[in-house]
Write a structure and sequence with these properties.
The protein is 52% helix and 11% strand. The protein is an alpha/beta fold and 647 residues long. Bound molecules: 2-phosphoglycolic acid. 2-phosphoglycolic acid binds next to strand 15. The site of 2-phosphoglycolic acid (PGA) has 13 residues, from strand 15.
Length: 647
């Protein structure tokens, strides 16, 4: 972290992100555990806003599943730092919708419990609203500096966690709808002594009324709640809030259970909120023989999230709950009495088993994926370290900083600059090869100055003929005779102003190599070519036309200099990435033609407005082996600054 301010921002963003993530995951999970409960809540909202009649029947449940999944997945995304910008914007949007909604409910009081945390944690409407204000503020902070969110999974593998979150949440929702909630947060959970709880509540008016709506009303004998519940032994309670909407696909199983209960003398009662006509219709449709009693519909939906659903009570205690999709197969004359069946033993409250199962399916895969990801990242780092170690060991290629004085400096100035550079580098040894390419007339005088030092000497051109009547030209052998070791060929200025073609350059290269000179061969595209995206094509053509006839041995005396023409002397540098892209392309091209080893050993310099301020970044790229420096090589301090970029 750079500054205390940045550190504080990081802290704020990550605290808010964790708060949102954990709240969203918790609230999503409790709804996914009980999508039916959230469905009923959404129906309340739809009724409040007069939308109920406009909605097809399946919509509230589908919406309940979709919204709970969205909440859960967003929570997981925030927790791991997956698609940070998108996720934080979606969370903000979510809060912008629900916060005003909860304010409306708090002010009007039309809906008693907002349903944010299902039945797991029930907040008052005003508590819910203020909770949402806090979450909204946290969402704004997270959106503000989303990029400061620390990732707990690599970008490469984040899709695994995101996909698992989607699959897990969908599976949990479907399982809970098809079977029953994996954890039962309601007061009618397995293990509760219903008879005792109702009696306690009746006798102690100071207790919060939880079972106030539960009653067993019969037509002939009125309210028989306690009387019926308190009977000793086993009894079956079939719950069907609305017989008109009840699922009749397991009617045979139900009728069998009823016959079985009669054989063994277990009381059996169907509790419903439907009218007598509906009861008669159900009886005639299904052949049901069991008696009916009346209870409030909302209360029945709370007892079991299935219509119909079956409860088994032992004395007053609920010992089993079965959804319609998963009824037991109890048959008259076949199934032994409940006392002999394991299933009829009072079960523990489903918190522990359900909770453990959930935790296992929930946390374990996330942890395993995250751990595998961390291992993958570590392995990748080891491999890349190993590769780069190996590379440096294998690679013979030299790091070079070469100065190109062009047509600058008098002989005296040139000698002075060479002397200055010599003494500076004698005091502070460079970490790379250093070359100065002077005008022809300087060569013979500068050669003795730099002889025996780390500084190499080069010319900026040579003739394309070995010798003879070519007035004004200087041959490669003449260059060599001055004591120089290098020659720059193919510089874009010579290509442009002196019309040096690929064929001429090919001759020059061969002559230079034949005379024992090392060639610094320049290549590079002009601005229009880069703008047309043709830079690779152009550079490949330049290499092919002038160098591809060389042998690998000859190539080992060549250094390439990639100089984008638009960056030469203009102050416009290619970015380090642009340089690296091109250098990697050049190396690949050379590898294809000369083989991997020759390409690996080939030094490729970058040239074009290279300065002490940008050299380090450019040279840090793996395929950049140094620079060919124009303007900045004329000032000793600047040139030294660039040489020092290798330190
Ligand atoms: P520059 O020139 O560093 O002044 O841009 C580089 C070159 O032409 O070699």
């Amino acid at each position: 972290m750079k500054s205390p301010k940045l550190w504080l921002s990081w802290l704020a963003v990550n605290v808010c992100r964790l708060l949102l993530a954990l709240t969203f995951i918790f609230s999503g999970t409790v709804k996914l555990i009980d999508p039916r409960g959230f469905e009923y809540k959404l129906e309340d909202y739809a009724t409040e806003f007069s939308l109920r009649s406009l909605m097809p029947l399946f919509v509230p449940l589908a919406l309940a599943v979709a919204l709970s999944m969205l909440e859960f997945v967003l929570g997981v995304n925030l927790l791991f730092g997956i698609r940070r910008r998108l996720s934080s914007w979606l969370v903000l949007l979510f809060m912008l919708v629900v916060t005003p909604l909860t304010l409306y409910i708090a002010v009007t009081g039309t809906i008693v419990d907002c349903g944010c945390f299902g039945d797991a944690v029930v907040l008052t409407n005003w508590q819910t609203f203020w909770k949402n204000v806090v979450l909204l503020a946290a969402a704004i902070v997270v959106v503000w500096r989303g990029r400061l969110m620390t990732r707990f999974i690599s970008e490469h593998n984040q899709w695994t966690i995101a996909s698992y979150a989607v699959v897990f949440s969908l599976a949990l929702a479907l399982y809970s709808v098809w079977r029953l909630p994996v954890i039962d947060f309601r007061p009618y959970h397995v293990g509760v002594d219903l008879a005792q709880a109702i009696e306690d509540e009746w006798n102690s008016p100071e207790l919060e009324p939880v079972y106030a709506d539960f009653s067993i009303d019969t037509e002939d004998r009125g309210d028989i709640t306690l009387e019926w519940l308190s009977q000793a032994g086993y009894k079956f309670l079939l719950i069907a809030p609305q017989l008109e909407e009840a699922d009749d696909s397991a009617i045979d199983d139900l009728n069998n259970i009823y016959d079985y209960s009669q054989q063994h003398g277990y009381p059996f009662l169907c509790l419903t909120a439907s009218s007598e006509e509906a009861q008669e219709l159900w009886t005639s449709m299904t052949g049901a023989e069991y008696p009916f009693a009346f209870t409030d519909a909302v209360c029945l939906k709370t007892v079991i999230r299935s219509n119909p659903g079956l409860l088994l009570l032992s004395d007053g205690v609920i010992v089993r709950k079965w959804p319609n999709s998963h009824l037991p197969h109890y048959e008259e004359d076949v199934t032994p009495p409940l006392e002999e069946l394991n299933v009829a033993q009072p079960a523990e409250r489903s918190y522990t088993k359900g909770g453990l199962r959930l935790l296992l399916w929930f946390c374990l895969p996330f942890l395993v994926i995250a751990a595998l990801d961390r291992m993958w990242v570590a392995l990748k780092m080891c491999i890349s370290n190993y590769k780069s170690n190996n590379k440096t060991k294998r690679t013979m290629r030299k790091k070079i900083v070469a100065g190109n004085w062009k047509m600058n400096l008098s002989l005296q100035e040139g000698m002075a600059l060479a002397s200055e550079l010599k003494s500076v580098l004698a005091q502070d040894k460079p970490n790379c090869d250093v070359v100065i390419c002077t005008p022809f007339v300087h060569l013979a005088a500068v050669a003795p100055v730099v002889e025996g030092t780390v500084i190499g000497l080069g010319a900026q051109n040579c003739a394309d003929k070995p010798k003879g009547a070519y007035t004004g030209e200087v041959s490669a052998s003449q260059v060599k005779s001055t004591g120089a070791q290098y020659v720059i060929l193919g510089h874009s200025e010579r290509r442009a102003y002196y019309h040096e073609t690929a064929a001429i350059l090919k001759e020059k290269v061969l002559l230079a190599l034949d005379n024992g000179l090392k060639v610094i061969f320049c290549i590079g595209e002009v601005l229009e070519e880069r703008e047309a995206g043709k830079q690779n094509e152009v550079v490949e053509g330049q290499l092919k036309d002038s160098l591809f006839d060389l042998t690998a041995e000859q190539l080992s005396h060549v250094v390439l200099a990639y100089e984008p023409v638009w960056a030469i002397g203009t102050g416009k540098t290619a970015t380090a990435e642009q340089a690296e892209d091109m250098h990697a392309f050049i190396r690949k091209t050379m590898a294809e033609h000369f083989g991997a080893e020759a390409a690996e050993n080939l030094s490729i310099l970058y040239g074009g407005s290279c300065k002490p301020s940008n050299a380090k970044e450019i040279f840090s790229k793996p395929d950049v082996d140094g620079g060919l420096i124009g303007g900045a090589s004329l000032v000793c301090a600047d040139f030294k600054g660039i040489i020092d970029a290798w330190k």
